[in-house]
Amino acid sequence: MSFPVTDGVETVMPPPPGWKVNFDHPTRDEDVAREAFWITGFELFIATGFLAQRLYTKLFIVKKLQIDDYLLILAYIGAVGAQAVLLQAFRVGLLGTHAWELSVDEYNQSSQMVLATTLTYIPTTILSKLVLCFFYYRLSPVLMYQYAVYLTAFICAGGLGAIWFSVLFACKPISATWDVRLAAEAVCVNSPAIYIVQAALGCITDLMLILLPIPTVMGLRLSVRHKVGLVGMFGIGSVTLVTSVVRLVLLLPGLGNKDQPWALAEGCLWVNVESNLLIMCGSLPTLKLFLNHVAPRLLKDRSKKESSGHAGSSNNYNLRTFGQGSMTPRRKFDTLVDLEHGHFDRSQFRPIETGKTDVTVHGGQADRVSVNSHIRGDTDSEEAILQVRTTTVAFSKR
């Protein structure tokens, strides 16, 4: 396959008429390259902080690592790897530079780095979405809901996994995927269509993950404020949906363009943005528990203030049964992580002191039992759980 020659250098395409080619100092999209470093550095710092708080919460508060924690760590490693490859491509000028100012070998190297980023980014996407599926699965034991989680996980892992193999084996021989010298003799599938399906499937799975937990959250016995907060937390995942759409819009024109090192630069920048957002979304479920631990006053529940305000002013112990109605809402779990992991120090929910209970049976009559009990401790607060014991007294005739 022959290539046009400019100043003695083979290039994939000739320069436009009147363009003065300078291979030593080519024209570069400096704005996109600068944004790539600043945005990636800032977002990666935040994503690392989010992951650190999740691991801290699991190791020192919940004191239990689960499979989704390890999956998120692997996703983070993949995200860092994908971003490092793209930043290196921007640094050496293999992205954000016109194809007619790159030699054929440099053009091949640019294609190889973009391919490596894609093959690293897809597993990162799969793992981060499986992390959310594991979290959603623990929210409810309802069978139909869990089947929906299974279906979502299957589409995420199966669909994106199939795309990963399609990208890797897009051409025969495989090296023709990035080597334009082999393009004439190679047999290749429609690569732009694969990338379009990848971006579209990413949008679909993002939407599924946003909508999946909402019916379950709305059915929980939580205050409206808590429900809105949880729905808002899941809605943050819509940010990745937006970035997927933006990346799809930016990549579509560049996929069929021979000047790909220039045309794909801005779209590759959004790959870095989305990679970090995936790590942040995967770390969100533990954020409130972490904040309650390190800064309890920041998220102090109003019910605690109300109960503490009445604790010292009244001696009337408003003991309630589970079926009894009340004008004040029952105390709820602070986070879904509490519910998920069963992380409770149940001893703190017992009364500080439980007095002695005397049961006196009068005259052998089974229908007259008097109970004299005195209970002290945290009875005004809704965090107090009183233990109820049932004593059965059997009578026999002498």
Description of the structure:
This protein has 398 residues and is mainly α. The protein has 2 domains: 5-294, Rhopdopsin 7-helix transmembrane proteins (Up-down Bundle), CATH 1.20.1070; 328-376, no CATH class. 56% of the residues lie in helices and 6% in strands. The chain contains 13 helices and 6 strands. It has helices spanning 30-61, 67-92, 104-137, 143-168, 191-211, 214-219, 224-235, 238-255, 260-263, 265-283, 287-294, 302-311, 336-341, and strands spanning 5-6, 9-10, 171-172, 187-188, 353-361, 369-376. The strands form 3 sheets. The protein has a two-stranded antiparallel ribbon with strand order 1-2. The chain has a two-stranded antiparallel ribbon with strand order 3-4. β1 (5-6) and β2 (9-10) form a beta hairpin. α5 runs antiparallel to α8. The longest helix has 34 residues, at 104-137. It is elongated and about 75 Å long. The model is unreliable at 302-360 and 364-390 (pLDDT under 50).
What is the name of the CATH architecture of the largest domain? Up-down Bundle
Query: Which geometry do the CA atoms define?
Result: elongated
Strand content: 5-15%
Instruction: Calculate the terminal CA-CA distance, rounded to whole Å.
Output: 112 Å
Reading side by side through the largest sheet, how are the strands ordered? 1-2
List the main descriptive attributes of the protein structure presented here.
398 residues, mainly alpha, Rhopdopsin 7-helix transmembrane proteins, 2 domains, two-stranded antiparallel ribbon, elongated
